[in-house]
Amino acid sequence: MASEQVSGGGPVGKRWNPEADTSGREGDEPFLAASAVALAAFALVNTFSVLHDVGQQGGRLSFWEPFVWETTSVVIIFAMLPVWMWFTRRYWPLNPPWWRPAAAHAAGLIAFSVLHIVGMGVLRWAVYGLAGATYAPLAPLGDFLYEFRKDALGYVGFVGLYAAWRALRSQPGLDPGPAAAQADAIEVRDGARRQFVPLADIAWIEAAGNYVELRCAQATVLHRASLSEMARRLEGAGYVRVHRSRLVRKAAIAAVESKPSGDYVVRLADGRELPGSRRYRKPLLES
Predict the structure, then answer these.
(1) pLDDT band at 40 (very low <50, low <70, confident <90, very high)
(2) 205, 235, 236, 248: which is closest to 223 by C-alpha?
(3) What is the DSSP letter of 142?
(4) Which candidate among 41, 157, 171, 212 keeps its CA 20 to 30 Å from the CA of 3?
(5) Residue whose C-alpha is closest to residue 67's, from 84, 88, 42, 87
(6) Closest Cα to residue 162, out of 257, 48, 86, 76?
(7) What is the DSSP string of 210-257?
(8) pLDDT of 269 over the 80 cut
(9) Whole-model pTM?
(10) β-strands 202-208, 273-276: how paired?
(11) Which residues, including other chains, have CB under 8 Å from residue 231's CB and lie 6 or more apart?
């Protein structure tokens, strides 16, 4: 097997990272609150717009009907927001290769639109029933293309705004706290207990279901986060992906030994060996 030397990693970089804190949705409450206010205002403005348009055409419409149409729509959207915020974090739109998050969000858009259209139809049917009126619960599906176009604009706008929010919140000095104060460590929470694991102590990070294992010289620390999340968190911190389930600190690598298959073995300075995938060979050697 051929042996290739790789250079060690440097300190944590200063580039912003949307997942700079590994607490996931923690800190997103202002975004949710602003979304609630914006959606409520949107529903109210649309209600009066519908009443105005009907009046201009010489028709008459009770206030409660367009109000129900618009509020049921925004209620369903707001109810789904936490799910789509998680989905956006899970398939971060700026993650390479670009086609993976793009494909995920294309499927997500279709699911979002179907759930939104069906959900608001059922909710309208329930409200109309309480008012002693009738409404076909699947009626909005008859205008699926019209509703889908609006949902597509809303979905893209939401993902863009949420990505911008996460980026802004991760700017140094704008979101002070343990993650910012401990830039050279990973905060691991266990109930009320917090542990800060120095990056310099972590030789590699291994995926373990909904967790990752922080492999240190003397111990392994279990941390609730995905490996993709950790890759974003540690961008510029001297870690490189060598396998779909493994990140390695470059400074801990002594050599890379190639195999005829194109895969390779990463030999650490302490003698431990880790299998690497040929898919991640080029980024490793170019890092």
Answers:
(1) very high
(2) 205
(3) G
(4) 212
(5) 42
(6) 86
(7) TEEEEEESS-EEEESS-HHHHHHHTTTTTEEEEETTEEEEGGGEEEEE
(8) yes
(9) 0.57
(10) unpaired
(11) 239, 241, 247
> How does pLDDT run across 93-128, given as a tens digit for each residue?
877 788 888 999 999 999 999 999 999 999 999 999
Q: Which tokens in the block code for residue 50?
A: 């519908």
Degrees (nearest 5) of the Cα angle 136, 139, 143? 170
Residue 147: helix, strand or coil by DSSP? Answer: helix
Encoding tokens for residue 148? 């889908």
Structure tokens at 97: 């290769």
| pLDDT confidence of residue 7 | 42
The amino acid at 92: W
Q: Are 284 and 276 a contacting pair, CB within 8 Å?
A: yes
| Local structure of 46: helix, strand or coil | helix
Tokens of residue 134, six digits: 């009738």
Rounded CA-CA distance 249/281 in Å is: 15
Structure tokens at 239: 């870690």
